[in-house]
Each structure stands twice: as structure tokens, then as C-alpha cells.
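agent> Task received from the user: take the single chain below, predict its 3D structure, and emit C-alpha cells. No templates, no multimer pairing.
agent> Plan: (1) validate residues, (2) run structure prediction, (3) serialize to C-alpha cells, (4) report one or two observations.
agent> Step 1 OK, no nonstandard residues flagged.
tool_call: predict_structure(input=
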Amino acid sequence: MSIRVASAATPDIVELLESATRAASTHRGGEQLLAAIYAGSEPNSVLADAVAHGSLWIAIDGDNTVGFALRRNGVLEAVYVKKRHRRQGLGRKLVHAVVDASDDILDAYALPGDRATKSLYESFGWKARLLTMRGE
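)
tool_result: status=success, residues=136
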């Protein structure tokens, strides 16, 4: 498996983004996170912009894209790995690639109760420093 910056919005990357969006939308806080990431734009526009600016890292297994990390404006906005490829260190490799390529301080988003993502970030020595509370 390899990690690299995406050079095109291929169909498997689009499919991966759609899977990540579906997964986030059903998670507590997911709709708010997606609204922050997409900021009123269509997902394909965000994807095209991320590819154009070198902000999307992908994990490749053979000919298939199996994970991605999206970093924009000093924020690691999303890390997603297909279910059958999890627990193999791909999320960690994606975050490493983003950190190694960044010359600014990184923040990262994690959804409430998403212990796996929080544990991943904590393994880099990162600490939660902001909690957003909202009444509904």
C-alpha cells in the first residue's frame, strides 16, 4: 500500500468521499461537520478544489483507493479508510503524510464519540482543546 497526494478526482475517490459523507451524516455531530467541510459547496467541487490544491492524500492498495485524508487551511478535516482496510495502520500513515507535508500548525476534526479517530490523533500527542456545544 502507498500514500500519495491525489492528482485527479477518480471514480474510486468520488465513491470513497460519498461513503465517508454517508458515514459522517449518520453520526452525532456529522451534519455540522459536513456543513463546515462543504461550506455550501457540492462535494464534487470540494473534491476538485482539494485535488487542485494538493490538499487530498490517498491510500492506494493495488489499483484501488482505500482511504483519504483532507487537509485545508491548517486543519485536518477528514480521515477515512474503507472498513475492510481498517486496523492496518493506514489512518496513521495518512496522518503522517499530512503532518510531514505541513509547515503550519495543524488542528483536526473528530466527531463526538468517535473514539477511533480521537485515539489516532492522541497517538501523535495531540490533545483535545476545543469542544463546541450547541443547543437543539
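agent> Step 4: summary for the user.
The longest helix spans residues 11-25.
agent> Done.
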